[in-house]
Design goal:
With 103 residues, the protein is mainly alpha-helical. It has five helices and two strands. The longest helix is centred in the last third of the chain and has 13 residues, at 83-95. It starts with a helix and ends in an 8-residue tail after the last helix. Belongs to the KHG/KDPG aldolase family.
């Protein structure tokens, strides 16, 4: 979903958690902040253009449950079967939410 109309239509169908894609191109954290007031029941998993530098800003929003992105497990790591690097990247991604209270 990437428009307010889509969010409202999903809420009317009982869907409360939804993917927000493409997050950065569709307004990023500012857009999600603008939805949190009038639509507090909606929760999002933003993906698209998010990286380790911007993920904490998303995770700090009250209407964001998680973030996603290929930066967490790039194709070259999988192709190389570099499971040590995969573990390091997973730990780094998990650490981005440190201090963020689960909602």
């Amino acid at each position: 979903m990437s428009t307010t109309s889509e969010v409202v239509a999903l809420l009317e169908r009982g869907v409360r958690e939804m993917k927000f894609f493409p997050a950065e191109a569709a307004g990023g954290t500012a857009y999600l902040k603008s939805l949190s007031g009038p639509l507090p029941q909606a929760r999002f998993c933003p993906t698209g253009g998010i990286g380790p530098a911007s993920a904490p800003d998303y995770l700090a929003l009250p209407n964001v449950a998680c973030v996603g992105g290929s930066w967490m497990l790039p194709q070259d790591v999988v192709t190389a079967r570099d499971w040590g690097r995969a573990e390091t990247l997973a730990r780094e991604a998990a650490a981005l939410s440190a201090g963020v209270t689960c909602r």
